Amino acid sequence: MRWSTGDRGNIQDMRGSSGRRGGMIPLGIGGVIVVALLSMVTGVNFFDVLGGGSSAPDSAAVGTTGTVNASPEEERMVNMVDAVARDAEATWQDRLGSRYESTKIVVFRDAIQSACGYAGSATGPFYCPGDRKVYLDLTFFDELHRRFGAPGDFAQAYVLAHEIGHHVQAVMGTDAQMRQMQRSNPGAANAMSVRLELQADCYAGVWGHDAAQQGRFAAGKVELDPGDAEEALRAAAAIGDDRLQKLGTGRVQPEKFTHGSSEQRMTWFKRGFDSGDPRVCNTFEQ
Ligand SMILES: [Zn+2]
Fold first, then answer.
1. Distance from the CA of 162 to the center of ligand 1, in angstroms?
2. pLDDT tens digit string along 138-152?
3. C-alpha distances in angstroms, 77 versus 72, 177, 193, 266?
4. Residue 90 Cα, ligand 1 centroid: separation in angstroms?
5. If you measure from the C-alpha of residue 108 to the centroid of ligand 1, how many angstroms do you get, rounded to a whole number?
6. How close is the Cα of 163 to the center of ligand 1, in Å?
7. Integer distance in angstroms from the first to the last C-alpha of the chain?
8. What are the residue ranges in the chain where pLDDT is below 70?
9. pTM for the whole thing?
């Protein structure tokens, strides 16, 4: 993947002021979304329930911080996240026009206070509907490589584009649609979650479709290299629920899926990627 360093206009850099309160139950990549959805559906902030009560954010944890001690590699990663976010947002601006509202990627270390409650690095990247921002601890990218066996910058970009996909769902009111379906069928919470997650995968693919067009790098945009799409598919497969469940418990329980199986995740990413059309991402009518 090729990209150019920009002005970090899409980044809210909280690395210098992340809290270290601890005590948050590690939720995993999928768990935080379930909790966010539960909170949205019920109006109760389950992050606070799990994290042991709401607390005021660190006084320093307001606004973007100035200097941070970071390696050149980490700084490069922040620039990459900024470039991908800008590019993915341009895709959605293009598809949705004035309906689209821009978002920010909050980059943090260790732990952070979001509108969805207190979250630690162990939660993995997440989207908070409460403040409509994406939260990312850069150490997740190492984990993606080492623990899930999905290296490569486009694998990282896919994860980010997936979270921005959740932002698109918030902007489009898909979360409200989900609440309505939940009311008519309370037993289907996990199934609803899977549909939202697969749609976010498909939306990540829609951006990938744009990024795969040639000549973009020369125009200052992100441009994929041959093999990048496979990187994303590998990442999608690596973080499928069946794979995560096997890593976690040694067995697979489809009724507990919250993100979808590896195969489903790859299929929906590819749908978006091949077409570039978000209308093919209607996982709710499948
Ligand atoms: Zn998700």
1. 6
2. 888 888 788 777 778
3. 9, 35, 30, 25
4. 20
5. 18
6. 6
7. 32
8. 18-67, 243-256, 286
9. 0.79
